[in-house]
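sorry to bug you again but im stuck and you know this stuff better than me. what follows is a protein written twice so to speak, once as letters and once as structure tokens for the fold. mainly i need to know what kind of three dimensional shape the backbone takes. anything you notice is useful, everything is just below:
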Amino acid sequence: MFTHISTQQQKGLTQIICGINAVNETLKQGKGVVELFVAKGRTIGRVREILDLARARGIPIRFKDRGYLDRLSPDTSHQGLVAVISGYTYYPMEDLMAIALSRKSKGLLVVTDHIMDAGNLGSLIRTAEFFGVHGLIIPKDRSASVTDIVHKRSAGGTAYLPVARVVNLARSLERMAEEGLWIVGTEGQGETSIYSFDWDRDVVIVLGSEGKGLSRVVRDRCHHLVRIPRLGHLESLNVSVAAGIILSEIARQIGNLTSS
């Protein structure tokens, strides 16, 4: 079984999700879990809801030695629980635009400009989902994709936040602008503080990569550039932390983003 799963993962046909929160949220959303592995000796109390839900959905449950789960998830803490899912399915970007623009509240999408670290992407997905973002767009090349590590770091966020992957990020921003979305880039030298900017509009927030920030071609597609005011000596923030600060200000200005 272990060899079978590894081969499937290499082909991109399946992925694994590790950890209690991530597995639980994925199961609740019915996101294609095909098998569940539980470490022998694992205290059942915290995972009873997960096991009951898996049984109700007819998902096979396998009790394995902890070393087996360690081999399934060598780079991620699994907490004695690993779910095997069918490969992650990205949304078309057009669908994300339609979701955002169909809301009674203002539409809100997030775009990442080549974030390479899977942990950062997972944390960003968790933050974006928490604040009710309607979708995330990432580039296909030179960017982290939705992998096992991203599932775990998102703490179940990947089960709720739709993600699109696009070939040409600059062209995609132009397409969103054509539909009336306001493209707002974030960087330290932005001309307006996030606290002075009027967020009461349909917005696409563009977040730069770790270290390099926004690329020139992406910056040129932004209608406006905003900054988070810096009070200390450090010049930058982790991308998920920066996103949380910005999204919190948007929520403060315009209220509930998730209303239908």
